[in-house]
């Protein structure tokens, strides 16, 4: 009876609506043509070239290999190359899965892998270096295409053309088959990114009728309790189906009376793969709508019905292009070369791959407490890689996506309310806190939006959540930090990085306290913001790790990125992270000339391999001297020359970095994109300014790469950026005018941008 009722509900949901996705006004030009989704898919880039819409929950993309996380109990370093599932150097495809990270340097997801095949049914994926050993297929980049919202490839082993597109919550597959009496669709429910034995906790699948399948999967990994529900609708009935279970079943109750392997409409287990059989004519298309939900299979069905009620693949594909074009066209920019334009618009595209919407169309979502919640007055988001993205991505959202960023902040506050620790997100995804990296950088995102007037969150509620997060004594050495003024290295590793980032975050909380009118909290957190001085060693001139007894840790090597108190950095570069008090830091470190000389040495002193060999996040392609642009802690460093009276050196460095660390090819990213932070740095820098201190209303001036730009603001106003005397040689800024007034100093205010108007850079080939 339950199955019949569910089937009737499904038929009603799938057939009862003709509304589709509303069309939007098309910009004057197709900006998606400037995007190359393959940028960054080689080596360390870890972006994916699949089908998604801006900030979409579904990110449907090919998996080109399946590397296990562990081999014989040891970490497999090759798995790091597959953080996003796709590597351009590969020539195999194992299937198309629906959830991905973009450039995070660590991974999870890769849920619900679908693979079309013909011929003898193979349920093992096989080995990439052994063609025909499993259901994977060879492919050629000559027969592969990708654009925002669309992916296409020819699966050579089967002669099947695969096409993918998506809406926010639904992936849409279109497979063009050859003539065959044995065509198959495999649903691999074992496959994960960063896979290992035991990652799958449970899988449950129901075959509701001859074209509708529902279910869920629960995994443990980076997110230790992750549930994703699905509804899978075929455009053509399958004539038979089955599954194979790979886990060791200790007890199966009275299910043992059935042959569950074939045409049994209920599948359950830890590790299983399902298959669905069809007979196809030459050129026949089988389409699949695959909806996700964080809540339930019924939620997935609602999402499917609301977002793709019919079977018009081209309409959904075109709508995805429209959505991307509308977002990309908010920033119209011109460049000297096509390569620069492609690099810029692909970077802008990358900034909108996350965070992602994480709720059903009715506003229900799974919370951190694993209960089902209803979003009220906001859209819930997830995937907060905050150690990366607070620096430039969220500040960019305050210009280009303020309404979404406001919802993201409200999602962070909901996370806090649902947290048993009463903690804002550190690094969170899919209703889980994974506790990756350091600091409590949600407070930076909140402060930045509050200072810039782009959020309507209650200041008292924001302050309470920030204070709660910053006083969780058992988190990352915070007890010692609060009582001693620093994190001791012999108690908590990466202690210098933690101390510096806690101090910056505390400065952000002081700004929130001021806006909340809490003078006591403001005073307390201003004091904590100065704790960075406690890890500065006057004798060596470096920030360095200190022990519980107050002694400096020995031995100390300021160039080493391992075991010296820093995470993914060293004292030479990470030791300059005091954005809240740059002038005081410069004075403490010997004054402007000495500090500028140190900056010069960072860019010109080649770091030896021995200092980075234990850090897989630091690679040669992201290094200039000892400056590591491929990792986030140094992203503000090129702009620090502005505080030394030598702004022309900032201008030289940022143009050099844009020219050498980014490009239009598959190796066009010098490291992990880190959920959009690397790309956001490029967007800001290409426009000529950068948020060295999120939480303030100032941007440090650089050297614009754009010839001109026009930003459409949410308030209906337009900001125009004009670059006079622009050329490759003219990297130096002679002067800057905002609405006809010459800018004094080396910074812009947020009001110069948010109020619209005109910013003019006058360029020269001589330092100014």
General shape: globular
> Which radius of gyration do the C-alpha atoms yield?
26 Å
Helix content: 25-40%
Largest sheet: 9 strands, antiparallel
- CATH class of the domain at 2-309 reads Mainly Beta
Q: CATH topology of the domain at 2-309, what is it called?
A: Beta-galactosidase, Chain A, domain 5
Range of strand content: 15-25%
Helical segment tally?
17
Ends: how far apart?
A: 80 Å
List keywords for this structure.
alpha+beta, about 25% strand, Beta-galactosidase, Chain A, domain 5, nine-stranded antiparallel sheet, six-stranded mixed sheet, about 775 residues, disordered N terminus, 39 strands, globular
Draw up the topology in text.
Elements: H1 2-15, E1 61-63, E2 70-71, E3 74-75, E4 92-93, E5 95-97, E6 113-118, E7 137-138, E8 144-147, E9 150-155, E10 160-166, E11 170-176, E12 180-188, E13 200-207, E14 212-219, E15 226-234, E16 240-245, E17 266-269, E18 272-280, E19 285-293, H2 297-307, H3 313-328, E20 331-334, H4 338-350, E21 356-357, E22 364-366, E23 372-374, E24 381-382, E25 384-385, H5 386-389, H6 393-400, H7 402-418, E26 427-429, E27 432-433, H8 442-451, H9 459-470, H10 478-484, H11 495-516, H12 519-528, E28 536-537, E29 542-543, H13 582-588, H14 592-604, E30 623-624, E31 627-628, H15 647-661, H16 677-687, E32 689-690, E33 698-701, E34 708-712, E35 718-724, E36 732-738, E37 741-742, E38 747-749, H17 750-754, E39 757-764
Parallel strand pairs: 35-39
Antiparallel strand pairs: 1-5, 2-3, 4-7, 6-12, 8-9, 9-10, 10-11, 11-19, 12-18, 13-14, 13-17, 14-15, 15-19, 16-18, 20-34, 21-24, 22-23, 25-26, 26-27, 28-29, 30-31, 32-33, 33-38, 34-35, 36-37, 36-39
Helix pairs in contact: 1-2, 4-16, 6-7, 7-8, 8-11, 9-11, 11-12
């Amino acid at each position: 009876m339950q199955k019949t009722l569910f089937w009737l509900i499904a038929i009603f949901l799938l057939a009862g609506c003709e509304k589709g996705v509303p069309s939007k006004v098309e910009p004057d030009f197709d900006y998606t043509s400037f995007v190359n989704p393959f940028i960054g898919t080689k080596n360390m880039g870890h972006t994916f070239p699949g089908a998604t819409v801006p900030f979409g929950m579904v990110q449907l993309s090919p998996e080109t290999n399946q590397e296990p996380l562990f081999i014989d109990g040891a970490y497999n370093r090759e798995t790091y190359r597959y953080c996003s599932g796709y590597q351009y150097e590969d020539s195999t495809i194992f299937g198309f899965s629906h959830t991905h990270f973009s450039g995070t340097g660590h991974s999870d997801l890769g849920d619900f892998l679908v693979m079309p095949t013909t011929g003898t049914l193979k349920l093992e994926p096989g080995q990439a270096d052994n063609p025909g050993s499993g259901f994977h297929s060879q492919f050629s980049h000559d027969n592969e295409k990708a654009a925002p919202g669309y992916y296409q490839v020819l699966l050579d082993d089967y002669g099947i053309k695969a096409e993918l597109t998506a809406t926010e919550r639904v992936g849409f597959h279109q497979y063009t088959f050859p003539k065959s009496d044995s065509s198959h669709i495999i649903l691999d429910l074992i496959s994960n990114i960063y896979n290992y034995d035991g990652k799958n906790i449970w899988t449950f699948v129901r075959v509701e009728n001859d074209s509708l399948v529902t279910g869920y999967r629960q995994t443990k990994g980076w997110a230790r309790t992750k549930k994703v529900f699905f509804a899978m609708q075929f455009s053509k009935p399958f004539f038979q189906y089955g599954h194979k279970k790979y886990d060791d079943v200790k007890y199966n109750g009275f299910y043992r009376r059935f042959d569950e392997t074939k045409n049994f409409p209920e599948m359950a287990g830890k590790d299983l793969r399902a298959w669905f059989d069809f007979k196809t004519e030459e050129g026949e298309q089988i389409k699949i709508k695959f909806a996700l939900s964080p809540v339930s299979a019924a939620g997935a069905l609602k999402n499917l019905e609301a977002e793709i009620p019919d079977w018009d693949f081209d309409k959904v594909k075109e709508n995805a292009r429209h959505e991307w074009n509308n977002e990309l066209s908010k920033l119209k920019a011109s460049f000297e070369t096509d390569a620069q334009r492609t690099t810029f618009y692909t970077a802008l595209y990358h900034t909108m791959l996350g965070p992602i919407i994480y709720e059903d169309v009715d506003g229900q979502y799974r919370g951190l407490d694993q209960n089902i919640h209803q979003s009220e007055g906001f859209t819930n988001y997830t995937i907060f890689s905050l150690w990366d993205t607070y620096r430039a991505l969220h500040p960019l959202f305050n210009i280009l996506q303020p309404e979404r960023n406001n919802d993201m902040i409200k999602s962070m506050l909901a996370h806090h309310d649902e947290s048993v620790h009463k903690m804002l997100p550190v690094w969170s995804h899919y209703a889980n806190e994974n506790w990756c990296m350091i600091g409590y950088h949600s407070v930076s995102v909140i402060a930045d939006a509050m200072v810039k007037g782009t959020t309507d969150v209650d200041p008292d509620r924001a302050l309470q959540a920030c204070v709660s997060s910053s006083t969780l004594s058992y988190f990352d050495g915070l007890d010692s930090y609060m009582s001693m003024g620093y994190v001791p290295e012999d108690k908590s590793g990466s202690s210098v990085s933690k101390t510096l980032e806690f101090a910056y975050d505390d400065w952000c909380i002081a700004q929130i306290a001021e806006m909340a009118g809490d003078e006591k909290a403001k005073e307390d957190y201003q004091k904590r913001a100065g704790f960075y001085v406690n890890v500065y060693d006057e004798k060596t001139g470096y920030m360095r790790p200190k022990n519980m007894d107050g002694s400096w840790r020995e031995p100390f090597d300021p160039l080493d990125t391992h075991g010296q108190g820093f995470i993914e950095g060293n004292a030479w570069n990470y030791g300059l992270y005091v954005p809240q008090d740059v002038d005081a830091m410069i004075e403490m470190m010997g004054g402007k000339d000495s500090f500028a000389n140190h900056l010069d040495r960072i860019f010109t002193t080649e770091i030896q391999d021995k200092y980075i060999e234990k850090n897989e996040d630091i690679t040669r392609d992201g290094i200039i001297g000892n400056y590591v642009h491929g990792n986030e802690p140094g992203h503000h460093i090129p702009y620090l020359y502005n505080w030394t009276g030598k702004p022309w050196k900032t201008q030289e460095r940022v143009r050099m970095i844009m020219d050498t660390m980014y490009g239009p090819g598959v190796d066009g990213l010098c490291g992990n994109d880190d959920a959009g932070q690397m790309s956001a740095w490029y967007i800001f820098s290409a426009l000529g300014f950068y948020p060295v201190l999120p939480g303030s209303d100032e941007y440090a001036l650089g050297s614009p790469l754009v010839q001109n730009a026009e930003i459409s603001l949410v308030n209906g106003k337009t900001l125009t950026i004009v670059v006079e005397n622009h050329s490759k040689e003219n990297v130096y800024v002679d002067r800057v005018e905002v609405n006809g007034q010459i800018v004094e100093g080396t910074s812009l205010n947020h009001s110069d941008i948010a109020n619209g108007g005109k910013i003019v850079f006058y360029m020269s080939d001589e330092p100014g």
